Amino acid sequence: MDRETKEIKLAVIGGDLRSLTAAGRLSERFTVSVYGFRGSEGDGDTYVDRMCCSGGMCVRCPEDISRRFEGDARHRDDIGEALDGAAALILPLPASVDGEHITMPFSDRLIRNEDVVRMAAEHGVRLIAGGRLGNIAKLAEKYGIEAFDYFEREDFAVANAVPTAEGAIAIAMNELPVTIDGASVLVVGYGRIGKLLAAKLKSLGANVTASARRDDDIAWIKASGINSARTGKLDETIDRIRPDVIFTTVPHTVIGKKELEVCGDALIIDLASKPGGVDIAAAGALGKRVIWALSLPGKTSPVTAGRIIADTVMMRITEISGGGEKKC
């Protein structure tokens, strides 16, 4: 991959509207083949009805909607044809949900992770890029292919935090009986998502309190004009500010029975990855409402999320083709 031209071929296999959008964006600079966005053999150009179900957007997605975002990418009915001559294989986020098969919600086919990696090696693929690669990274090493997990890139994580924050606010707007303007809001955790979320909520007129454990994060919260709190003392903070909504971004239990007992009628929106930031069993026993909002970019802003994937992949290809190898 020494030149960024149409002579360089990429194969995009599996995924949802994010992957289809990424394929379209990549096709502006590369020759792109896609596989895994159709039904069984003989279906022709018909997209299966569950086009967007994995993203939670709709039950049936008209064929012309997907065509708006695929650009010059060419659909292939044979995976070998898609991989033929490809320098890189682009897999979805997550690359595999069950750890055994490539994520392909738009297709009724099942393809094992190892089969895809083996075929990629047979076709001379040099780079496999995907999100949350899991065992695919080890398989790539086994077959002598570089594995690039774009989900682990800081630039990807920051960019992806934007649609996550906006999606979280959209949920709150739809579910709360009050406006964000003037609402009491608690954001638990001040990482990438917490920072962006707190800032966006503040700009909408919310009375925002953000929690953190580290002194430097507390200092940044205060410097941003946001009320600060210690994550280790959330029960006291919740009892004091009486939040209308609580957003959690910490991927371990920070809202337990003690915190739930004082949160009143607050809506809890858990943005944390598994196992989540809320004790769901305790919340159920206490009659508290919790929305576990996983993978929001793919559900609320799939086109933007797809562009972020494409831009991150292009950056990695540029790093390789430029000769100045950088560690992913």
Question: Could you characterize the architecture of this molecule?
Answer:
The chain contains 13 helices and 12 strands. 47% of the residues are buried. It starts with 8 loop residues before the first strand and ends in a 7-residue tail after the last helix. It is an alpha/beta fold and 328 residues long. It folds into 2 domains: 9-152 and 302-321, Rossmann fold (3-Layer(aba) Sandwich), CATH 3.40.50; 156-294, Rossmann fold. Helix 4 runs parallel beside helix 5, helix 6 packs across helix 7 (192-203) and helix 6 runs antiparallel to helix 13 (302-321). The strands form 2 sheets. Strands 3-2-1-4-5-6 form a 6-stranded parallel beta sheet, with helices on both faces. Strands 9-8-7-10-11-12 form a 6-stranded parallel beta sheet, with helices on both faces.
Quick recap of the structure?
The chain is an alpha/beta fold and 328 residues long.
Protein traits:
6-stranded parallel β-sheet; Rossmann fold; alpha/beta; 328 residues; 13 helices; 2 domains
